[in-house]
Every structure is written in structure tokens, then in C-alpha cells.
Amino acid sequence: MIEILYALLLIPLALLIEGIRRKAVARMHNRVGPPFLQPFYDIMKLISKKEFSRKNLVFNLVPYLALLCSLAMLLFIPFAIIGFDYDFLVFGYLFILQDTFYIFGAVSSRSPFAMFASVRELLLMLGYEITFLIVLSLFFYGTGAMSFQEFAAEFAFLKLPLVSLFLLFTGFVILRITPYDVMVAEPEISAGFFSEYSGASLAVLEIAEFIKDFIIYMLFGFLLFGPGYALLLSPVFMLFYMVMLTSSPRYSTVATVKTFLFLALLAFLDVFVVI
Amino acid sequence: MHDKIFPIGPQHPSLKEPIFLKLHVDGSYITKAEFNLGYAHRGVEKCAEGYLLDTALHAVQRTCGICSQCHSLAFLNAVEPMAGIEVPDKVYLQRLLSAELERIHSHLLWGGLMAHEIGLETLFMYYWREREHILDVFDDLTGNRVHHSPDLIGTAKRAFNRKNLDFILEKLDLIEPEVKELKEVMRSERVITSRFKKHGMIPRKMAIDLGLVGPTARGSGVENDVRVHDPYMAYAFKELKVKPVVRNECDSWGRSMVRCDEVFESIGLIRKACEMIDPKEDVPKRKNVFAKGTYGRGRSEAPRGENFHFVKVENNRISRIKMRTPTLANLICYSRIMEGEDITDVPVIMMSLDPCISCMERVAVIRNEKKEVWTSHELFEGKKHD
Amino acid sequence: MVSMIIKVLKNLLSKPFTSKYPKEKAKVSVNFRGAIHVDQENCIACRLCEVNCPTGAIVVDTKKNYAVVDRSLCILCGMCAEVCPVNVIWFSNDYENAEKKKKDFRKQLPGPNPRPGKRS
Could you tell me the domains of chain B? Predict the structure, then answer.
């Protein structure tokens, strides 16, 4: 029970981190940027807006399911007090489940933009998501741990360099930032999955995304450098992704899939290291 | 996803103005493209009817937010010979300054939007940061930042003094190296160039056949520039010869680079014009003008291409204005070049043509209270051209 | 890409180009055409401005004998100031011209022209 309370307390933290991210990106753009609390204002405004609802159960449920997935994933990252002591594979499942929910929501909305986004996401899932699971397991099997609580390896990226590289690149897709963000490519397909959502459900979706971003920053520090560095290094990873986001254009779908297939092949070379 | 319709517009993040692109897609490839117009009719032509000439000038300038000076130049080209007014050189040079600054402003704006389409938001911000300097110059020169209406028939509202000219040169020195760097970013990145090259092909022959104008034609190797072929005002001066930027790539890349290079061409022109202006000379006082002729026509080179105005005057008041803006001339090629392309490339191709929809939007025809809209097919065939 | 990264990092550490608008006022030039003012005492109600206005924003009130401006219609072209024979119409540098209610746009801004000799 206390874990869930903590998870709820972490929602404002995730929003605040998004606020800091926006401010920093704005500075990189050479502008002042929104106030740090802007995500809170956004969410409050979205909740107060009238929702354009559909008589479609899947479509209406998806935001809440996605939020649940995000919250559940949050509990896996072991801070001092909380943390699920379950198999890391559950984390991987939750991760894929969330993306699947997005695709369900997108397809059930019947919007052409969302449809295109889901087609692209499915294509990319072939490229990165399956490999992501394998990469996760490599990290754990390589260090002999079975859950996040047991994971204690420090500087694992030295042992598994190619896998770490793949993991860094997956970050772009998961965070939905350029160069690998074809599924939310704004100029072509508006907001992709979220183009039909409005009002409170959009707010819930955004919270889910923010929490996921927060998890990713933590996860990479955790896996690559060790549990002790997770909190410390999360701003570094955030900065890395922001610099990449602001300095690279969007790759086309074909180029993205090619890159990820190539990286996956590279990552498989590391399997021999583990075995 | 077989033969689905993928709508872009009338409201879409990649479009800054309303136009409806109906793309028939097979997978993500476009098999057929249609477009619908008629979402933003502003009726400037009708509005200007019955106006005095000076008043109409200010109405006509409001046709477009980006190329307002070029509209007023075309209008003045039509009206000034009609009224038989002699215009001093200084006024001509001042107009050239505004027009060329506006070209820089338009192309920088375009560069930002293009950067947005390829997903490089930072470049977008940097381009618009440079554009801001030009707006500051307009503020200083004319008093307004966007719809700067510096012209009157036969004269200008105020004479530029030494301080103004120095301010222009100072700001140009500021933006020139920056814009060069930004262009270099576009050129050096292979990911960016791959989005442009070999996409949205307009062969030279097609460009001539369809009568394309402006950078769109110049990117296909057609040297089409009103400033050169029909020099008007200060462009007719010997010292201010324009060397049009022509490229032979015929794709989005060619068109984009034409725009990038024209910025520097314009900067050179402004520098020359600044030297030629006598800062102490005053412009003549405004006089009431009386048009002697009945109709006049004028052309000017807007940032997007040739701009044409036809003005008919009765009893010293405008009885009819017809404008042909460059986007209307270029509109005809849209659906042709979209076919066979990937959805991913549509925003880039669209932006490489630099459409200015609300400036062009005069195609919707209301007949018997039923709105008729030209489709691409009808534009090709010219069925409704009567 | 490398040049972009250098630029981005340089900008992260430098001062932003944009300003914090409501706290920090924007700088405009002396020539800036902002709010439109009419010097009601010296207006001779000649109606030249009314005739020359492209949008019909300025109308001469025949009872009060001065020009009345509807600022929601004004496009700030400066034509009225140009034709005015006694230079009573002038533009201040005040750029904050938005109003919350439509009728507030009809509130008149009187005051003598600070630069009567100069045009626009």
C-alpha cells in the first residue's frame, strides 16, 4: 500500500522534471521558455476542458490503462524504500503492454493519423521492442540477477558496450524524440496516437508519458552505471537526450527501421560475451 | 492500408494556412493527390472597390502578411503611370530596400518552417531569431513590424535618414554570418539532404509548360524573375542589376537552395542601395492623385514569384482590382509532384513550394449559392477558366 | 550535427534571445505606430481622415466636431495621420492595445500631438 502512495507522490516529480526539460530545451533554442510549473498548468487546463468522447470502450479505457502501466513500471525502479521485487521480465511486459495499449487506442479511434502512427509503431516494434527485451535480459543474465532489487552490477556498460549502445538508441524511440520519432512526427501525422484524445483523457495520457520519460532516465543510469548512480546520473541522461533532440533532424521510417536492425545485429554480438 | 484517404488539412500542424490535401495512399505511398481550396477567402479585391487610390493601396498591402510590400509595389506599378506621377530616385530606392528586406524576412521565415518540417526544431528557432532582426529594422524604418505600409502614391511616408541606413547595415552584418552558418547546417547534414534530394521533381519542361514562377521555377533551371525581365522602379538602375539564383536540380533541394542563396543576393542589393541613397534628401509631400487612364497593370517580384495586379479606375476610384499572386501560378503543380511520393516527404515537398494560401485564396466561386471549388483536375484542364 | 551540438550547448549557457515579456517591456523604435490618438480640441472635423480610411475605423462625430476612432477596426496604416491638414491624429509608441471588451475599443485616446511638425 505504501508503495502505491509513493508512486502517486512521484507523479508531481515527473511533471516537474518535464518542466525542467522544457525550460532547458527552450534555452537550447535560445529562448526564455515556459515556467517550470507549465506541465501542471497544462494538465489542469486539459482536465477542465470539455472532452470529445466516443462510444468506444477501448478508446476511452486506454489512457487509464496506460497510466496504470506507467505507475506499475515506476515501482520497479528501486529507490531506497520502494520497489517491486519481481522478475525484470514483468517490467519488460509492462513496457510492451503500454505500447500495445496505445496502438489499441489509436486503431479504435479510426483516425487516419493515429492509424499511420500505429502502423509505424508496429514496424518499429519489430526493430526495437523485441530486441529491447533481449537486451534487458542480457543485462540481468550477465550479472546473475533476476530482479531490479538484486541487480547490483556497476559499470555494466563496460562489459556490454554494444548492448548499451542499443539501449541508448532505444531511448529516442521510447521518449518519442527526434531523430527516431516517426510515430509522432508532427508535420505528417499530427500527434500520432494522441491525435483523437482530448480533455481529461489526454491529460492522463500525458501524465503517463511523463512518468515513462522519468523512468527511462532513471533506468539507463541504473542499468549502465549501477543502482547507486541511478538518481545521480538521471539528469545527465536527460541532458544527453535533450542535446540529441535539439541537434538532429527526424529520420524517415525506413531509415529508422534500418538503423535499429543494424544496432540489433550489433547487440547480438554481445550475447557471446554473456554466454 | 490499401487505397485509404489520408487528409492533410484544412487544419494540420504542417500547414500554416488552410488548404485541404486529399491524398489517396497505398501503404504509405501516394497514388493520387487532390486538393480543395476555399477555406480562407478574405475578399481584399472586393473590399478595395470604390476606394480612393491611396486608400486602396493600404487595403491591397493587407493581402499578405509576408509580402505586403510586394503587393504594394505591383499596385504602384499599375497606378503611378496611370496618374502620371514622377517619382524621385530616393523613393524608388526606399521601396527597393523595403522589398528586399521583405524577401530576406520571407525566406528566413520559410527556412524556419522547413526546419520544422524536417523535425529540427532548433534550426526553426534560430532562423526565426534572425528574422526578428529584420522585423526590428522594419519597425525602425516604417513604424510597423509586419504590415509596414511605407508607401504613398508617388512618394513615401518618411525619408530614411543616416541613422536608419546605419541600423540596416548593422543588422545585416549581424545576420549574414548567422544565416550562412544555418545554411551550412542544412547542407552538411546527410539526413537532411536525403529528405530533399530526388523528391518532388519538377523537370524543366514541366516548369515551363505549367508556367511556374519564382523560386519554384528557378529551382528547376528556369530563369524567371520579374526584376530581371521586366525591371521596375529601382531595379531598372544600372548599379542594382539583379543576378537571379538559378539551380538545375529540379527537386526540393534545388528550390530550397535557391531560397537560401537569394537571402545573400538580397543582402548585397540592400548594401548597394544603402550607398546610393542620399540620407539628407527629403521625399516629396503627399499630393492628391488623379488617375488619368482607365486601367493599369503592374508586376512585381514577390518572395514567392511574380505578382500581378490589374487595376481599373473610374471617377478616380477603384472599380476593379484583380491580383494574381505567385502561389496561384504555382498551385497547378502540387498534385502532380505528390504522386509516387511517400507520406513522410509530403510536408517537405509542400514547404519547398512555399505556399501562401490566404494570399492566393481567390479560387472559390460562389454560383447560385452553391460553393464551387476547383479540383486539381479542373485546374489542369482549365474547365472553369471561363 | 557536430556544429549543431556546439551551437546548442553554447546557447544553453548563454542568455536567451527572447525577453520575459510581461515583466520586461519590449523595445520599439521612435517611429513605431501604436495606439491611435486624436487631439479633440484642435480637430477641425474636415472628414479627410474618414474618406481616406481603408476600414472605416475613423468617423467624424458631427455633434462633437471631432474624429472618433474604433480601434478594433483600425489597421494602423497611418493614412489618417498622413492626410490630416492640422496634424491632430498621431500614433503613440504604446503597443499594448488589446482590450477585454469590445466596447472598450471605442474609448477615445485624446491628447495633443507631441511631434506636430513630423509626419507619422
Answer: 4-41+328-381 (no CATH), 44-327 (1.10.645.10)
Q: What is the ipTM of this complex?
A: 0.86
How many Cα atoms sit within 13 Å of B4 on the Cβ side?
A: 15
Which residues in A lie closer than 8 A to residue B343 (C-beta atoms)?
116, 188-189
| CB within 8 Å: A246 and C1 | no
Global confidence as pTM: 0.88
C-alpha cell at A234: 538521471
Strand pairing class (C36-38; C89-91)? antiparallel
Tell me which residue of B121, B28, B66 sits closest to B360, measured CA to CA: B66
Amino acid at residue number B2 = H
Q: Tell me the CATH number at C86.
A: 3.30.70.3270
What is the extent of the structural domain holding C101? 29-106
State the cell numbers at B30: 501516394
Give the number of other Cβ atoms within 10 Å of residue B320's Cβ.
Answer: 14
How far is residue B149 from each of residues B56, B89, B153, B359, measured CA to CA in Å? 12, 19, 12, 17
The answer to whether residue C1 sits within a structural domain is no
Total residues found in chain C within this entry: 120
Residue contact B139–C119, C-beta within 8 A:
no
Residue-wise pLDDT for A42-52, tens only, equals: 999 998 988 87
Query: Please, is A123 exposed, middle or buried when counting C-beta atoms within 10 Å of its C-beta (0-12, 13-18, 19+)?
Result: middle
In a domain, C119, yes or no: no
Note the helical H segments in chain B.
Answer: 44-48, 53-61, 68-83, 89-117, 121-142, 162-188, 190-196, 204-210, 214-218, 226-229, 252-276, 326-331, 334-338, 346-352, 357-360, 376-381
Q: Is residue B32 within a helix (H) or strand (E), and if so which, with residue range? A: strand B29-36
Mutating which of A113, A172, A251, A252 best tests the B interface, going by the most B Cβ atoms within 10 A? A252
Determine the Cα–Cα distance for residues B23 and B376; give it in Å rounded to an integer: 12
Element of type H or E holding A105:
helix A88-109
What span, in angstroms and rounded, lies between the C-alpha atoms of C19 and A31? 8
User: How confident is the model over B109-138, as a mean pLDDT?
Assistant: 89
Q: Which residues of A touch B345 (CB under 8 A)?
A: 252
> pLDDT tens, B283-310?
888 888 887 778 888 888 888 888 888 8
Total count of domains within chain C: 1
User: Cis link prior to A235 (omega < 30° from 0)?
Assistant: no
> Is there a contact between B54 and C52 if contact means CB atoms under 8 Å apart?
yes
Read off the C-alpha cell for A117.
Answer: 502512427
pLDDT digits (tens, 9 = 90+) for B246-276: 888 888 888 888 988 989 989 998 998 888 8
